[in-house]
Design goal:
By secondary structure, the chain is α/β, with parallel strands linked by helices. Helix 8 runs antiparallel to helix 9.
């Protein structure tokens, strides 16, 4: 019923916990599809061992010889997915036991929805440090100007909707904003989603995560923000919001970290 797609890259230290959290799900009709994106550590070997130890053959493992980026990696996972629903999972995070069950129930109760996601609990090496909150249960198109409207890692999407928009778009300007751009494509095609109020997913948000937030990705955020204004024929003055992402990228790391931790408790 559910195909869980996971790009894995240099995550040998965290991959085991991520996979084990899938094994611990109360909903059990799933397959896990991983694609190693040219890892330099033992990530691929760890993933392969889970296949060897899993007699039910519910895990598929793909491999890139060199790094191709998350967008292409997820598309490759989608190409072999068999489920009616597509769920995301990151290799350094943890899905709480009832995540899949509750997200699937939400989709089945509201068949007009194509996407369901939820807030996340943020944690690092010292434990949980913040819990996101849902301010927009049913986001609108104009909300896509201000950022991604559904948390990507804990989302579940109808496979037919994902197929209709041809999955993730690949390009340098879409790296680290693949989810935001996906929602723009889906909402412009007439699909909509919902954010649950209950956090069902734990996101690793530590110094390594901070180091991945490079300035070039802020430029990508500004690019996609402008795209939303144009795509949905919104007032031209809304282009000004794209500047905010560039300004955030120019902040010194200590200031960014402080502001990031302050806002988590008031935003999905």
């Amino acid at each position: 019923m559910i195909s869980i797609i996971m790009g894995i890259y240099n995550c040998a230290d965290t991959l085991g916990d991520a996979i084990e959290s899938i094994f611990a799900q109360t909903y059990t009709d799933w397959e896990l599809i991983m694609c190693d994106d040219g890892s330099k550590d033992s990530t691929y070997e760890i993933a392969k061992k889970y296949i060897q130890d899993n007699s039910q053959r519910r895990i598929k493992l793909l491999r890139h010889e060199f790094n191709r980026g998350l967008n292409q990696t997820l598309n490759d996972c989608l190409s072999v997915a068999r489920g009616e629903y597509i769920a995301r999972m990151d290799a350094d995070d943890i899905s709480l036991p009832m995540r899949l069950e509750k997200e699937l129930n939400a989709l089945e109760k509201e068949p007009e929805l194509a996407i369901v996601s939820c807030p996340m609990i943020h944690f690092d090496e010292n434990g949980d440090w913040a819990t996101g909150k849902c301010n927009r249960p049913y986001p609108q198109k104009r909300d896509l100007v201000f950022g991604t409207i559904h948390a990507h890692a804990p989302c579940i999407v109808r496979a037919e909707a994902m197929k209709a928009v041809q999955g993730y778009s690949v390009g340098k300007k879409l790296l680290r904003v693949e989810d935001w751009h996906l929602w723009i494509k889906m909402y412009s095609a007439g699909y909509y989603g919902k954010n649950l109020e209950e956090p069902l997913y734990k996101m690793r948000d530590d110094q390594n995560a901070t180091n991945r937030r490079k300035f070039r990705y802020r430029l990508n955020e500004a690019y996609v923000s402008r795209m939303a204004v144009k795509k949905f024929s919104l007032p031209k003055w809304m282009y000004i919001y794209s500047i905010r992402f560039i300004m955030v990228g120019l902040l010194p790391t200590p200031i960014y970290n402080f502001l990031h931790r302050k806002k988590i408790n008031v935003k999905v």
